Amino acid sequence: MRVLIACEFSGAVRRAFRERGHDAWSCDLLPAEDGSPYHLQTDAIHASYGMLHLDPWELMICHPPCTHLSVSGARWFKKKTVEQLEALAFVKTLLAAPIHHIALENPISIISSRIRKPDQVIQPWQFGHGETKATCLWLKNLPKLTPTKIVEGREARVHRAPPGPDRWKERSRTLQGIADAMADQWGSLAIERAA
Ligand SMILES: C[S@@+](CC[C@H](N)C(=O)[O-])C[C@H]1O[C@@H](n2cnc3c(N)ncnc32)[C@H](O)[C@@H]1O
User: Fold this and answer.
1) Number of Cβ atoms within 10 Å of the Cβ of 53
2) In what order do the strands lie in the sheet with 120-122?
3) Ligand 1 binding pocket includes 131 (Cβ within 6 Å)
4) CA 9 to chain centre
5) 3-state DSSP of 53-85
6) Backbone phi, then psi, for 166, in 5-degree steps?
7) Residue 65, ligand 1, Cβ within 6 A
8) pTM (two decimals)
9) Using one digit for the tens of pLDDT, what is the confidence trace for 17-61?
10) How far is the CA of 57 from the centre of ligand 1 (A)?
11) Separation in Å, CA 89 to CA 77, 86, 96, 114
């Protein structure tokens, strides 16, 4: 399956798909943290709307920045109307990309009130990580993710990362259990469709 993981510097979801035999690529304005050759350092809109030398994508999973969208930053909202509109336009454009299966992931955010409610809200503790961090999924032609391993432990993920310039990276990196669930459950769609 041809898979694009948009707005991913870590390679977590890309690796999960590639390990299962898919032709998966990540893309981000930043370079790939793992130095993978299967990373496009480019704008997600450019990558998702078609790079002429590449075959079409069948599935896209996107992790757009939540800086101007997240409800946890609500007290700053009045001061950043323009940034918010731009961030919402970016999300809308990704959701409208010409790709059959799309999942877009974000924390609790104004996407819910300004575009539409998410199709699913997942938690790390449903996928083997003893942490809480509500993660919303907007889905197009994809089933909801089934929890793979419900564990004890409800520590808020956001409070664990130490301060520093790379704190946002630690907080935003997709967790392994969720990456594996996406690759296992959504990666099999191509096989089912072909059958
Ligand atoms: C919330 S982080 C997601 C990180 C992801 N979960 C991971 O494991 O790498 C958002 C990412 O979007 C990237 N980004 C921002 N604007 C972008 C754009 N126009 N095209 C592609 N990537 C973009 C940022 O560089 C950042 O790495």
Assistant:
1) 5
2) 39-41, 23-28, 2-6, 59-62, 101-107, 135-140, 120-122
3) no
4) 11
5) CCCCCCEEEECCCCCCCEHHHHHHHHHHHHHHH
6) -100, 15
7) yes
8) 0.93
9) 999 999 999 999 999 999 999 999 999 999 999 876 678 999 999
10) 19
11) 16, 5, 11, 10
